[in-house]
Amino acid sequence: HPPSAILPPMNQKHMLLITIGSAGDVYPKIGLGRALLARGHRVTLVTSAFFEELIRAEGFDFVPLGTKEHYFNITQNPDLFHPTKGFQTIARWGLVPFTQPVIDAIEANLADNLVVVSSGMAFGARIARERFSFPLISAHLQPSVLRTVYDCPDLGGFRLPDWLPHGVKRAYYNLLDKAFIDRELAGPINQIRAQYGLAPTQHFMGDYFHSPDKVIGLFPDWYAPIQPDWPASTVLTGFVEFDTESGDELAPDVQAFLAAGTAPIVFTAGSSNQHGHDYFAASVAAATRLGRRAILVTRNPAAVPAQLPEGIIHLDFVPFSRLLPHAAAIVHHGGIGTVAKSIASGVPQVITPLSHDQPDNAMRIKRLGLGAAIQPRQYNVKRATETLQSLLTDEALLANVRAYSARIDFAAMMAQTCDEIERTAASFGLAKVPDRLVNSAGELQ
User: Looking at residue 232, which CATH number applies to its domain?
Assistant: First the structure.
């Protein structure tokens, strides 16, 4: 993807994109990187070593975080999607270990034209921002990470009632920080801060989660409107799309399957969920009862029943932006990327949220009238069959799904995101280079 336009040197930026997570977190940054590269900027992506080959194929520079083995160990940990142990698992294995490497990656790339676009989970970016002056943009894929006492997010399957006083809601967030979040993060991250001469901090998933320079919500306002107590610099630019690994078209065997019968139901467990045998077994049985064809999407073949009925197939990977327009419905765990592609494709959704942002996304899909939710422990053949049958025969809901599909223009949303990044970058001065990188003549060593 060569640059489509050559910018004047003074306008060319080095866009350092940092993200921590699975494919659902990394793919949007690859899509963003494509768009920024096409505008003439240099792009470097800092993320798990697991994605190195894919990222380098895009023409980006790459800085690995951890090893492929480290990524496999995290994604295969059964506690990753546990309602109460999930955050602890991510903090100990995916957040704290990468804090210093993120700082190092930023230090190594400090220059006058540096712009850092980071997920909130990359706490090293905040530390570097305080130690070295450069524009830092927090790019949030999902609204659940933006706390509010107004239209509260669903956190872990629990949402604060609207009637609660704001003071009580703030007290709840403080308790959540003290009992769970800061308990995991404060010690190790404040130790790193001290090494840079920075005072201890707290509320890592509160104010500290967002850059003081700019916050971009990568979702539309009709999905989650800006709240009065979100950071003042917050702007919403819309969903960011990227999901293809090998070309832009469906494989011939998938095209043949789609052409051979009625629209299938798609069942997926998410890119980082390496478990789910019971989930897929119940899904196959539900599709069979409904007399529907189905596609099971998972990279873990052990989770798929050994014998699949006629009309049901298993795929390791398929670009959802190409598949979902041909689907009757999708059942998934509620990752924001799959949510966005499903809305864009005009497909009703059944979400079985496990943890993290998934319960909040499920709440919003139900509230918008775009689908239903089933709690994972309640997901069985009977419940899945009844829920899917209800969605697939609800003409009002199907019409609403089609109406919202028309509201998504991924190209326009990406352009707006890039525009906002460029505007933010243009409003900042030179980056502060650490003394140890400058010689006696004031030149970079």
Answer: 3.40.50.2000
